[in-house]
Structures are given as C-alpha cells and as structure tokens.
C-alpha cells in the first residue's frame, strides 16, 4: 500500500525520472502534486507495471492531479553536464511547470539539488512507497516511451520502439552495425571496450 504523503503540507510534490541508463534519447522527469483525496489501487512504481497499465494510468493521473509537469533533457545536454546532473535538471524543469508551487518535494533516489529553497527529501525506492512519486514515475516513463516511439520511425534499425534506447543486446548490435545517430549519448560507453567505434 503506497503512502499518500511524507510531510504535513497541502502541496507536496513527488518527482522521478526515466531513461537514465539509456544509450539514446532524453532523460525525462515528471513532477506531480496529488490531492489528499487521491486513491488508486493499481498505481505503483512504473517498473512494476505493464505498459498497458501505465498507459491506462497516464490520463487518470493527469486528470486527478492538482498539477503535473513533464520535461525532457536531450542527449546533447546530457553529454555536456553528465547524466546525474541531467536527471536532476529534468526534475527541476518538471517542477518549474507546477502551479500551485509545491511546499515540499519528495524525490525518488538519493541525489537531488535544492530547488528554490523548497524543503525536500530524497527517498530510495520512493516510487514504490509514495503515490505522488509513483505517479511521477508513470508520467516520466510514458512520455519518454512516446518520444522514443516517434524517433524509432526515423531510425527503425535500432528498434527503439521495443528497447526504448536501453542497452539491450539488439541495440548494441545495431550500433556495431550502423554506428550511432544524433540521438545517441556520445558521453556514454555505447559498446563494451573491446568493440571500439570509429567515430
């Protein structure tokens, strides 16, 4: 059973990101403030849910949330500032979109940077503990998947529709065969060391 809130404030926002371990595409974050009355029996950490359930939950969360925001940080920026900073930046940008402004922020994971002096707490495996973080994890994942499905049309040989840019065997084989695209993160080890790429 997921908990409703961590603090006593009215506007507590949960935030989470998706796509941190991917070789291609953006890292995407969402921030969500749910009403105190929010209930949902299916909602859980997005990794525990099937794609079908995530797709069903997305409109429910968007409709029921007091406010939500989603932001992508693309590969060029990831390569400049590194994936950890890009993940936190994506969370900050998703919080920028919230209205009302949160009074307290709960973050999935153990790394965050202060946001406009709003008190925050990082919570390891928070997406499996708090409804608002679980809701943010579902939005981050569904919006990112949607984006990866779109760019799949441009470069179908990497099968991003299926692997969403994660380092699957198939994705690595395609990189070995076709090289990299403008969507690949050049700062990442795209292939194991023994398979050096001529860029």
Automatic annotation (TrEMBL):
Cofactor binding remark: Manganese or magnesium. Binds 1 divalent metal ion per monomer in the absence of substrate. May bind a second metal ion after substrate binding.
Domain of life, source organism: Bacteria
Gene3D superfamilies given in the database record: Ribonuclease H-like superfamily/Ribonuclease H
Enzyme class: hydrolase
Ranges of residues in domain RNase H type-2: 10-199
Keyword flag Protease: no
Family: Belongs to the RNase HII family.
Name of the featured protein: Ribonuclease HII
Native source organism of the sequence: Seonamhaeicola marinus
């Amino acid at each position: 059973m997921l908990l409703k809130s961590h603090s006593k404030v009215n506007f507590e926002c949960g935030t989470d990101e998706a796509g941190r371990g991917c070789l291609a595409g953006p890292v995407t974050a969402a921030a969500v403030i749910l009403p105190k009355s929010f209930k949902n029996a299916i909602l859980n950490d997005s990794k525990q849910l099937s794609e079908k359930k995530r797709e069903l939950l997305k409109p429910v969360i968007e409709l029921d949330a007091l406010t939500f925001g989603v932001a992508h940080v693309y590969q060029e920026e990831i390569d400049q500032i590194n994936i950890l900073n890009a993940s936190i930046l994506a969370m900050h940008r998703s919080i920028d979109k919230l209205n009302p402004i949160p009074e307290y922020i709960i973050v999935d994971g153990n790394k965050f940077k202060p946001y406009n002096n709003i008190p925050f707490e990082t919570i390891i495996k928070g997406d499996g503990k708090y409804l608002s973080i679980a809701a943010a994890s579902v939005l981050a994942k569904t919006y990112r998947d949607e984006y990866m499905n779109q760019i799949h049309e441009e470069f179908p040989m990497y099968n991003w529709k299926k692997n969403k840019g994660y380092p699957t065997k198939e994705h690595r084989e395609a990189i070995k065969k076709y090289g990299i695209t403008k969507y690949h993160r050049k700062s990442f080890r795209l292939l194991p060391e023994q398979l050096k790429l001529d860029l």
